[in-house]
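Per your request, structure below.
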């Protein structure tokens, strides 16, 4: 298997890049399911061997595959996922073929109602976290495909799916300029009802949607998306600022929650350019060398004080998302890139490489902080998030001549 490792990488990072590609992202491809299928875990065991997760995981691995030259598989997977889009534009956050048509209920939780075609639109955790995640991922993957291929005709052909996906997001925005949706990429803490990471990512996604529509001459939806992004940004700067750090989420009964130390919302605000200059100047010195985001030797933890979360924030379920995860690490790296912190970015890459090497080039789904105590062993080996994001980070954020201009 020929892996095109970028030139100029330090040997530990170069080897991690090769192993992330060969043993993880490429190993997850499984044409016996269908051409273009890839599993969430490279061994096909964790989270199912024929499931697809358009909420985040799909987009991360698909973009890594683009960087690895597997455009044909990514386009095939894109065609598969878009078939499941609902008439109102909502994309399912999971596609579970083996549970198609089934409705089950966990005790004290919402029903898991899988549609007849295998699409899952409503999460089993009360409050429906991840509700906006798939549409954001769908738009950002379309932007990544267009950036890699430059195929304007392909992009124009996707408008019947992209326009409804963007319209669905636009329709969710409240009169105050807030994007509903708890727990944009985590399930617990559910972060009801307005999640700061969600607000930042929706600004970014709608900006990218505006660029895509503009590229194919769809000026009215481009303007609508750009205007909505500006409304969301302004609302974030007003509602999600706690004086010296970001509000994590705004709960419908408890109000603004900002007492768990620094969180992934702070990284997201800088990464997406949603924080203003003054806020960024206050945040960055606190984030840049903060050791409390390192959990069990790996970046990036969800908060610097994970032990302070209360049971009601977990909805009395569990605390497994109080962890370091590849999705949070990507935000850290993105923020470091925006701030021009290449040394910090390299140190972070080296930490992730070291953990992967120690585990035979398998990365876990979650890594827990010693400060939260024993959360059990709820994790999957060969989970593709850290490997996929390692490839994306190297290609997007290290200063290189072969970078995509996309962020």
């Amino acid at each position: 298997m020929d892996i095109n490792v970028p030139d100029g990488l330090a040997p530990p990072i170069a080897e991690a890049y090769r192993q992330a590609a060969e043993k993880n992202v490429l190993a997850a491809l499984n044409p016996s399911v269908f051409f273009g299928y890839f599993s969430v875990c490279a061994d096909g065991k964790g989270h199912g061997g024929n499931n697809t997760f358009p909420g985040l995981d799909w987009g991360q691995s698909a973009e890594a595959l683009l960087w690895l030259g597997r455009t044909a598989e990514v386009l095939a997977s894109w065609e598969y996922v878009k078939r499941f889009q609902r008439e109102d534009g909502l994309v399912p956050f999971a596609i579970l073929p083996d549970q198609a048509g089934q409705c089950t209920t966990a005790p004290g939780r919402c029903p898991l109602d899988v549609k007849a075609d295998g699409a899952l639109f409503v999460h089993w955790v009360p409050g429906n976290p991840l509700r906006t995640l798939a549409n954001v991922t769908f738009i950002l993957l379309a932007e990544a495909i267009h950036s890699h291929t430059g195929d304007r005709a392909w992009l124009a052909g996707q408008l019947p799916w992209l326009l409804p996906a963007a319209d669905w997001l636009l329709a969710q925005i409240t009169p105050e300029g807030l994007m509903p949706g708890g727990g944009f990429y985590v399930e617990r803490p559910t972060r009801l009802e307005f999640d700061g990471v969600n607000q930042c990512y929706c600004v970014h996604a709608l900006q990218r949607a505006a660029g895509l529509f503009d590229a194919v001459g769809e000026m009215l939806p481009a303007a609508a998306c750009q205007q909505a992004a500006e409304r969301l940004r302004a609302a974030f700067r007003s509602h999600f600022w706690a004086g010296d750090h970001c509000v994590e989420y705004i709960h419908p009964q408890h109000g603004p929650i900002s007492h768990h130390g620094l969180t992934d919302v702070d990284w997201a605000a800088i990464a997406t350019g949603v924080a203003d200059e003054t806020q960024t100047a206050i945040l960055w010195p606190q984030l840049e060398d903060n050791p409390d985001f390192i959990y069990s030797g790996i970046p990036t933890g969800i908060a610097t004080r994970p032990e302070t979360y209360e049971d009601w924030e977990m909805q009395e379920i569990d605390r497994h998302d109080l962890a370091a995860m590849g999705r949070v690490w990507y935000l850290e790296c993105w923020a470091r890139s925006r701030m021009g912190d290449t040394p910090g970015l390299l140190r972070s890459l080296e930490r992730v490489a070291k953990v992967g090497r120690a585990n035979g080039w398998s990365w876990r789904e979650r890594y827990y902080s010693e400060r939260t105590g024993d959360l059990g062993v709820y994790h999957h080996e060969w989970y593709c998030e850290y490997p996929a994001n390692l490839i994306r980070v190297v290609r997007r954020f290290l200063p290189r001549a072969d970078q995509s201009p996309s962020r």
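The mean pLDDT is 95.

Regards,
D.
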